[in-house]
Amino acid sequence: MLKDLFRKQKKYATIPSEQAKRDIPEGIMQKCPSCGSIGFTKELEKNLKVCKSCEYHFSLSAPERIRITVDEGCFFEYDSDLLSEDPLSFPNYRNKLKQDMEKTELKEAVVTGEGTIGGFPAVIGVMDSRFRMGSMGSVVGEKIARAARQAATKGYPFILFSASGGARMQEGVLSLMQMAKTSAALEQLHRKRVLFVSVLTNPTTGGVSASFSSLGDINIAEPQALIGFAGRRVIEQTVREKLPEDFQTAEFLLKHGQLDQVVSRLELRDTLIQILDLHLSGRDHNE
Ligand SMILES: [Zn+2]
Fold first, then answer.
1. Model confidence over 149-194: pLDDT tens digits?
2. Which DSSP helix (H) or strand (E) runs through 110?
3. Considering its fold, how many domains does the chain have in total?
4. Which of 16, 118, 238, 244 fits 273 for a cystine, CB–CB 3.0-4.6 Å?
5. Ligand 1 geometric centre to CA of 47 (Å)
6. Cis, peptide link before residue 16, omega less than 30° from 0
7. Are residues 266 and 248 in the same domain?
8. Which Pfam families match (predicted)?
9. pTM of the predicted model, to two decimals?
């Protein structure tokens, strides 16, 4: 009929076929692993990857973390050319490194550099759990130690975001040595009275939780982050005791004095700016 030509709405609704539904490009929608609600990825990204229903914090890549923390266009990367070796000739290690480099477009599991946050200069380190689970090998340890040294030399506060499965088993004892190396570099920073803020994100475990990430002058964590040294099962078997449900969460650690604050990602940048501001004005006062 003629009037149908002028109808704004289509006469027939199109129902996407099962095939078409499957063809929806991956990544447009995302499901929250905590509460199961489904939302647009773009909306989620606008909310800094925090679920609007339950406040679950999705993990962030290092570039994403830098983008939401550092002032726009104000990040200068350190040591981007450091590459891991395969000192123990561990089977398939080189291959896995190569795959992770392609997947993440990073060279290692931590990005370090300097920039400004709310106008305050700082040295910044961000671990990326997509790269070998954010494990700490020689290069990760070296980059963190060098960043701490830069902070000590320049007198800029050091802010380090952890996200790690712990030591990197493919580098054996060399990986464990990074715990001592990073801790020693932070001790130097401490002696120079330069502020170190550790931000623990989900997950921060093993050798990373047992070294630099617990050594902040201020230790902050994101809500519900898993933080601990050994896994629940290993501890339960060792101590032969049932552990509390919320054991190893940020909130549990806050309650027991291991953390100074649990801060939602939506307020984290402002909190850091406030800390940097207080620190700077406090220091000016003392000089
Ligand atoms: Zn949720």
1. 999 999 999 999 999 999 999 999 999 999 999 999 999 999 999 9
2. strand 110-117
3. 2
4. 118
5. 12
6. no
7. yes
8. Carboxyl_trans (PF01039), Zn_ribbon_ACC (PF17848)
9. 0.89
Question: Is residue 287 situated within a structural domain?
Answer: no
Cβ of 149: how many Cβ atoms within 10 Å? 15
Instruction: With respect to residue 20, please indicate whether it lies within any of the assigned structural domains.
Output: no
Residue 74 forms part of a structural domain: yes
Binding residues: 32, 35, 51, 54
Could you tell me the distance, in angstroms and rounded to a whole number, from the CA of residue 50 to the centre of ligand 1? Answer: 8
Length of the chain: 287
Tell me the CATH number at 256: 3.90.226.10
Sequential DSSP letters for 11-52:
SSPPPPPHHHHHTSPTTSEEE-TTT--EEEHHHHHHTTTB-T
Domain of 36, in residue numbers: 28-58
Q: Which residue ranges are tagged as binding site for Zn(2+)?
A: 32, 35, 51, 54
* Rounded Cα distance, 31 and 10, in Å: 31
Q: 138-154 and 172-191 helices cross at what angle (nearest 10)?
A: 10
**CB-based contacts of 107, cutoff 8 Å, min separation 6:** 80, 81, 82, 83, 101
Phi then psi for 95, rounded to 5 degrees? -60, -45
Instruction: Determine the Cα–Cα distance for residues 236 and 10; give it in Å rounded to an integer.
Output: 62
**Amino acid type, 27:** G
Q: Are residues 42 and 92 in the same domain?
A: no
Q: How far is the CA of 53 from the centre of ligand 1 (A)?
A: 5
pLDDT tens digits, one per residue of 63-92: 999 999 999 999 999 999 999 999 999 999
